[in-house]
Protein backbone atom coordinates (compact mmCIF):
# COMPACT_ATOMS: atom_id res chain seq x y z
CA UNK A 1 0.00 0.00 0.00
CA UNK A 2 2.79 2.45 -0.84
CA UNK A 3 1.77 5.95 -1.84
CA UNK A 4 3.34 5.88 -5.35
CA UNK A 5 1.21 2.86 -6.29
CA UNK A 6 -1.97 3.64 -4.35
CA UNK A 7 -3.24 7.20 -4.15
CA UNK A 8 -3.90 7.11 -0.41
CA UNK A 9 -3.59 10.85 0.13
CA UNK A 10 -5.82 11.54 -2.86
CA UNK A 11 -8.49 9.24 -1.48
CA UNK A 12 -8.30 10.77 1.99
CA UNK A 13 -8.38 14.28 0.53
CA UNK A 14 -11.43 13.46 -1.56
CA UNK A 15 -13.18 11.97 1.47
CA UNK A 16 -12.33 14.95 3.69
CA UNK A 17 -13.33 17.56 1.11
CA UNK A 18 -16.65 15.96 0.20
CA UNK A 19 -17.41 15.16 3.84
CA UNK A 20 -16.81 18.78 4.84
CA UNK A 21 -18.99 19.99 1.95
CA UNK A 22 -21.94 17.80 2.94
CA UNK A 23 -21.57 18.61 6.65
CA UNK A 24 -21.33 22.34 5.90
CA UNK A 25 -24.53 22.25 3.87
CA UNK A 26 -26.39 20.49 6.69
CA UNK A 27 -25.22 23.14 9.20
CA UNK A 28 -26.55 26.10 7.19
CA UNK A 29 -29.99 25.91 8.77
CA UNK A 30 -28.59 25.73 12.32
CA UNK A 31 -25.65 28.15 12.06
CA UNK A 32 -25.17 30.01 8.78
CA UNK A 33 -21.73 31.37 9.66
CA UNK A 34 -20.36 28.00 10.74
CA UNK A 35 -21.92 26.30 7.73
CA UNK A 36 -20.37 28.77 5.28
CA UNK A 37 -16.97 28.43 6.97
CA UNK A 38 -17.08 24.64 6.67
CA UNK A 39 -18.19 24.87 3.03
CA UNK A 40 -15.30 27.26 2.30
CA UNK A 41 -12.93 24.81 4.00
CA UNK A 42 -14.33 22.00 1.86
CA UNK A 43 -13.57 23.93 -1.34
CA UNK A 44 -10.01 24.50 -0.14
CA UNK A 45 -9.61 20.77 0.56
CA UNK A 46 -11.11 19.87 -2.82
CA UNK A 47 -8.80 22.35 -4.60
CA UNK A 48 -5.74 20.93 -2.83
CA UNK A 49 -6.85 17.40 -3.68
CA UNK A 50 -7.31 18.30 -7.34
CA UNK A 51 -3.82 19.81 -7.42
CA UNK A 52 -2.45 16.62 -5.88
CA UNK A 53 -4.34 14.47 -8.36
CA UNK A 54 -3.02 16.56 -11.23
CA UNK A 55 0.56 15.65 -10.32
CA UNK A 56 0.22 12.12 -8.91
CA UNK A 57 1.43 9.27 -11.16
CA UNK A 58 -1.33 6.87 -10.03
CA UNK A 59 -4.14 9.31 -9.25
CA UNK A 60 -7.72 8.30 -8.51
CA UNK A 61 -8.77 11.03 -10.94
CA UNK A 62 -6.06 11.02 -13.60
CA UNK A 63 -5.20 14.19 -15.44
CA UNK A 64 -6.72 12.80 -18.62
CA UNK A 65 -10.11 12.43 -16.91
CA UNK A 66 -10.11 15.98 -15.53
CA UNK A 67 -8.99 17.41 -18.89
CA UNK A 68 -11.62 15.48 -20.85
CA UNK A 69 -14.68 17.73 -21.10
CA UNK A 70 -17.00 14.90 -22.08
CA UNK A 71 -16.04 12.65 -19.18
CA UNK A 72 -15.95 15.26 -16.42
CA UNK A 73 -19.31 16.79 -17.35
CA UNK A 74 -20.90 13.37 -17.70
CA UNK A 75 -19.71 12.64 -14.15
CA UNK A 76 -21.14 15.95 -12.90
CA UNK A 77 -24.43 15.15 -14.61
CA UNK A 78 -24.47 11.76 -12.90
CA UNK A 79 -23.88 13.46 -9.54
CA UNK A 80 -26.91 15.73 -10.06
CA UNK A 81 -29.01 12.77 -11.18
CA UNK A 82 -28.19 10.68 -8.12
CA UNK A 83 -29.01 13.59 -5.80
CA UNK A 84 -32.61 13.43 -7.06
CA UNK A 85 -32.74 9.70 -6.35
CA UNK A 86 -31.64 10.14 -2.76
CA UNK A 87 -33.85 13.13 -2.01
CA UNK A 88 -37.03 11.30 -3.04
CA UNK A 89 -36.02 8.04 -1.36
CA UNK A 90 -35.16 9.99 1.79
CA UNK A 91 -38.32 12.14 2.05
CA UNK A 92 -41.07 9.93 0.65
CA UNK A 93 -41.12 7.33 3.49
CA UNK A 94 -41.75 10.11 6.03
CA UNK A 95 -44.60 11.41 3.90
CA UNK A 96 -46.14 7.93 3.76
CA UNK A 97 -45.93 7.70 7.55
CA UNK A 98 -47.26 11.18 8.32
CA UNK A 99 -49.90 11.58 5.61
CA UNK A 100 -51.08 7.99 5.17
CA UNK A 101 -50.38 6.43 8.56
CA UNK A 102 -47.93 3.82 7.28
CA UNK A 103 -45.59 2.13 9.70
CA UNK A 104 -41.86 2.48 9.14
CA UNK A 105 -41.69 -1.09 7.84
CA UNK A 106 -44.61 -0.61 5.45
CA UNK A 107 -43.15 2.64 4.10
CA UNK A 108 -39.80 0.94 3.55
CA UNK A 109 -41.51 -1.93 1.73
CA UNK A 110 -43.26 0.52 -0.60
CA UNK A 111 -39.94 2.22 -1.36
CA UNK A 112 -38.50 -1.16 -2.32
CA UNK A 113 -40.08 -0.48 -5.71
CA UNK A 114 -37.12 1.77 -6.59
CA UNK A 115 -34.36 -0.88 -6.62
CA UNK A 116 -36.70 -3.38 -8.28
CA UNK A 117 -37.40 -0.90 -11.06
CA UNK A 118 -33.70 -0.18 -11.47
CA UNK A 119 -32.81 -3.86 -11.80
CA UNK A 120 -35.64 -4.66 -14.19
CA UNK A 121 -35.19 -1.67 -16.46
CA UNK A 122 -31.41 -1.98 -16.43
CA UNK A 123 -31.76 -5.08 -18.60
CA UNK A 124 -34.16 -3.27 -20.93
CA UNK A 125 -32.01 -0.15 -21.35
CA UNK A 126 -28.92 -2.19 -22.21
CA UNK A 127 -30.78 -3.65 -25.19
CA UNK A 128 -32.29 -0.35 -26.29
CA UNK A 129 -28.96 1.48 -26.12
CA UNK A 130 -27.56 -0.93 -28.69
CA UNK A 131 -29.87 0.70 -31.24
CA UNK A 132 -30.21 4.37 -30.27
CA UNK A 133 -27.63 7.03 -29.52
CA UNK A 134 -26.69 7.72 -25.91
CA UNK A 135 -27.10 11.48 -26.38
CA UNK A 136 -30.90 11.60 -26.84
CA UNK A 137 -31.29 8.71 -24.38
CA UNK A 138 -29.66 10.81 -21.66
CA UNK A 139 -31.93 13.77 -22.39
CA UNK A 140 -35.06 11.59 -22.45
CA UNK A 141 -34.07 10.01 -19.15
CA UNK A 142 -33.48 13.39 -17.53
CA UNK A 143 -36.83 14.66 -18.81
CA UNK A 144 -38.64 11.92 -16.91
CA UNK A 145 -36.34 12.40 -13.92
CA UNK A 146 -37.41 16.06 -13.94
CA UNK A 147 -41.08 15.20 -14.45
CA UNK A 148 -41.24 12.56 -11.71
CA UNK A 149 -40.92 14.86 -8.65
CA UNK A 150 -43.59 17.19 -10.07
CA UNK A 151 -45.97 14.28 -10.65
CA UNK A 152 -45.45 13.05 -7.09
CA UNK A 153 -45.94 16.57 -5.71
CA UNK A 154 -49.16 17.12 -7.65
CA UNK A 155 -50.48 13.70 -6.62
CA UNK A 156 -49.86 14.17 -2.89
CA UNK A 157 -51.71 17.50 -3.13
CA UNK A 158 -54.95 15.56 -3.62
CA UNK A 159 -56.89 13.93 -0.78
CA UNK A 160 -54.96 11.22 1.05
CA UNK A 161 -56.43 7.87 0.05
CA UNK A 162 -55.15 4.39 -0.86
CA UNK A 163 -55.47 5.22 -4.56
CA UNK A 164 -53.24 8.26 -4.03
CA UNK A 165 -50.45 6.01 -2.77
CA UNK A 166 -50.64 3.82 -5.86
CA UNK A 167 -50.51 6.87 -8.12
CA UNK A 168 -47.47 8.11 -6.19
CA UNK A 169 -45.83 4.71 -6.70
CA UNK A 170 -46.48 4.94 -10.45
CA UNK A 171 -44.96 8.44 -10.47
CA UNK A 172 -41.98 7.08 -8.57
CA UNK A 173 -41.58 4.36 -11.19
CA UNK A 174 -41.60 7.04 -13.93
CA UNK A 175 -38.93 8.99 -12.06
CA UNK A 176 -36.80 5.90 -11.43
CA UNK A 177 -37.14 4.78 -15.05
CA UNK A 178 -35.89 8.13 -16.28
CA UNK A 179 -32.95 8.21 -13.91
CA UNK A 180 -31.94 4.62 -14.68
CA UNK A 181 -32.08 5.36 -18.43
CA UNK A 182 -29.81 8.35 -17.90
CA UNK A 183 -27.36 6.30 -15.83
CA UNK A 184 -27.18 3.52 -18.42
CA UNK A 185 -26.75 5.93 -21.34
CA UNK A 186 -24.29 8.08 -19.41
CA UNK A 187 -22.12 5.07 -18.61
CA UNK A 188 -22.15 4.00 -22.26
CA UNK A 189 -21.10 7.50 -23.32
CA UNK A 190 -18.35 8.04 -20.75
CA UNK A 191 -16.80 4.60 -21.30
CA UNK A 192 -16.91 4.98 -25.08
CA UNK A 193 -14.96 8.25 -25.07
CA UNK A 194 -12.56 7.31 -22.24
CA UNK A 195 -8.95 6.81 -23.38
CA UNK A 196 -7.61 3.28 -22.99
CA UNK A 197 -5.23 4.25 -20.20
CA UNK A 198 -8.04 5.59 -17.97
CA UNK A 199 -10.79 3.03 -18.61
CA UNK A 200 -9.55 1.00 -15.65
CA UNK A 201 -10.14 3.85 -13.18
CA UNK A 202 -13.44 5.05 -14.64
CA UNK A 203 -15.36 2.79 -12.28
CA UNK A 204 -13.84 4.48 -9.25
CA UNK A 205 -14.52 7.94 -10.68
CA UNK A 206 -18.16 7.07 -11.42
CA UNK A 207 -18.63 5.60 -7.94
CA UNK A 208 -17.12 8.67 -6.27
CA UNK A 209 -19.45 11.06 -8.08
CA UNK A 210 -22.36 8.69 -7.46
CA UNK A 211 -21.84 8.64 -3.69
CA UNK A 212 -21.26 12.40 -3.70
CA UNK A 213 -24.61 12.84 -5.41
CA UNK A 214 -26.29 10.60 -2.84
CA UNK A 215 -24.77 12.59 0.03
CA UNK A 216 -25.61 15.97 -1.48
CA UNK A 217 -29.17 14.81 -2.17
CA UNK A 218 -29.72 13.99 1.51
CA UNK A 219 -27.98 17.17 2.69
CA UNK A 220 -29.84 19.50 0.33
CA UNK A 221 -33.23 17.88 0.93
CA UNK A 222 -32.70 18.21 4.69
CA UNK A 223 -31.79 21.90 4.38
CA UNK A 224 -34.74 22.63 2.09
CA UNK A 225 -37.19 20.67 4.21
CA UNK A 226 -36.03 22.12 7.52
CA UNK A 227 -35.98 25.71 6.28
CA UNK A 228 -39.48 25.51 4.78
CA UNK A 229 -40.87 23.53 7.71
CA UNK A 230 -39.52 26.03 10.24
CA UNK A 231 -41.34 28.88 8.51
CA UNK A 232 -44.61 27.00 8.08
CA UNK A 233 -44.59 25.20 11.47
CA UNK A 234 -43.13 27.37 14.28
CA UNK A 235 -44.03 24.77 16.93
CA UNK A 236 -42.07 21.73 18.16
CA UNK A 237 -42.09 18.88 15.65
CA UNK A 238 -44.23 15.97 16.91
CA UNK A 239 -42.43 12.80 17.94
CA UNK A 240 -43.33 9.36 19.24
CA UNK A 241 -44.33 10.81 22.63
CA UNK A 242 -46.73 13.37 21.18
CA UNK A 243 -49.65 12.73 18.83
CA UNK A 244 -49.34 14.18 15.36
CA UNK A 245 -51.94 16.95 14.86
CA UNK A 246 -53.72 17.15 11.49
CA UNK A 247 -52.30 20.63 10.94
CA UNK A 248 -48.76 19.25 11.01
CA UNK A 249 -49.67 16.59 8.45
CA UNK A 250 -50.92 19.28 6.06
CA UNK A 251 -47.76 21.29 6.68
CA UNK A 252 -45.47 18.33 6.05
CA UNK A 253 -47.25 17.48 2.80
CA UNK A 254 -46.65 21.04 1.56
CA UNK A 255 -43.03 20.88 2.72
CA UNK A 256 -42.60 17.60 0.86
CA UNK A 257 -44.08 19.17 -2.28
CA UNK A 258 -41.82 22.20 -2.22
CA UNK A 259 -38.76 20.06 -1.52
CA UNK A 260 -39.56 17.86 -4.52
CA UNK A 261 -40.01 20.87 -6.78
CA UNK A 262 -36.68 22.37 -5.73
CA UNK A 263 -34.72 19.11 -6.02
CA UNK A 264 -36.21 18.49 -9.47
CA UNK A 265 -34.10 21.39 -10.71
CA UNK A 266 -31.05 19.16 -10.30
CA UNK A 267 -32.27 17.39 -13.44
CA UNK A 268 -31.96 20.69 -15.31
CA UNK A 269 -28.36 21.00 -14.12
CA UNK A 270 -27.74 17.46 -15.35
CA UNK A 271 -29.22 18.42 -18.73
CA UNK A 272 -26.84 21.38 -18.97
CA UNK A 273 -23.92 19.06 -18.18
CA UNK A 274 -25.17 16.65 -20.85
CA UNK A 275 -25.24 19.36 -23.52
CA UNK A 276 -21.75 20.52 -22.54
CA UNK A 277 -20.42 16.93 -22.56
CA UNK A 278 -21.83 16.42 -26.05
CA UNK A 279 -22.09 13.11 -27.87
CA UNK A 280 -19.64 10.42 -28.90
CA UNK A 281 -18.46 10.97 -32.49
CA UNK A 282 -17.34 7.36 -32.86
CA UNK A 283 -18.41 5.47 -35.98
CA UNK A 284 -20.59 3.01 -34.04
CA UNK A 285 -22.45 5.77 -32.21
CA UNK A 286 -22.83 7.79 -35.40
CA UNK A 287 -24.80 4.99 -37.06
CA UNK A 288 -27.33 4.66 -34.24
CA UNK A 289 -30.75 6.29 -34.31
CA UNK A 290 -31.22 9.93 -33.31
CA UNK A 291 -27.53 10.76 -33.21
CA UNK A 292 -27.09 14.59 -33.54
CA UNK A 293 -25.06 14.36 -36.74
CA UNK A 294 -25.07 18.11 -37.37
CA UNK A 295 -22.93 18.64 -34.29
CA UNK A 296 -19.97 16.82 -35.82
CA UNK A 297 -17.81 17.18 -38.90
CA UNK A 298 -17.91 14.48 -41.56
CA UNK A 299 -14.25 13.67 -41.06
CA UNK A 300 -15.23 11.66 -37.96
CA UNK A 301 -17.48 9.38 -39.99
CA UNK A 302 -15.61 8.33 -43.10
UniProtKB/TrEMBL annotation:
Alphabetical list of InterPro entries matching this protein: MFS_trans_sf
Keywords, ordered alphabetically: Membrane, Transmembrane, Transmembrane helix
Membrane topology summary: Multi-pass membrane protein
Superkingdom: Eukaryota
Tagged with keyword RNA-binding: no
Chief localization: membrane
Protein name: Major facilitator superfamily domain, general substrate transporter
UniProt keyword Membrane present: yes
PANTHER family: MAJOR FACILITATOR SUPERFAMILY, TRANSPORT PROTEIN
Compartment(s) of residence: Membrane
Leader sequence residues: none
GO cellular component: plasma membrane
Residues annotated as transmembrane: 32-52, 72-94, 100-125, 137-159, 165-189, 258-279
GO molecular function, a single term: transmembrane transporter activity
Amino acid sequence: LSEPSFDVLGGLGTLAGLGALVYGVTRLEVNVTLGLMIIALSFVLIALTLWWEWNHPCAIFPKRIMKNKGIIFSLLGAMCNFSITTSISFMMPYCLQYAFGYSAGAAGTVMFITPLTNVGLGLVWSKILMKISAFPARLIGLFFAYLGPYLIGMTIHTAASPSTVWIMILCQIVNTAGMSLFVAANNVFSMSIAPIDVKGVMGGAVQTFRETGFSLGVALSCVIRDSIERKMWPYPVPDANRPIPPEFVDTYVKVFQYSLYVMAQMALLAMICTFIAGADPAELEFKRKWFPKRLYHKRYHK
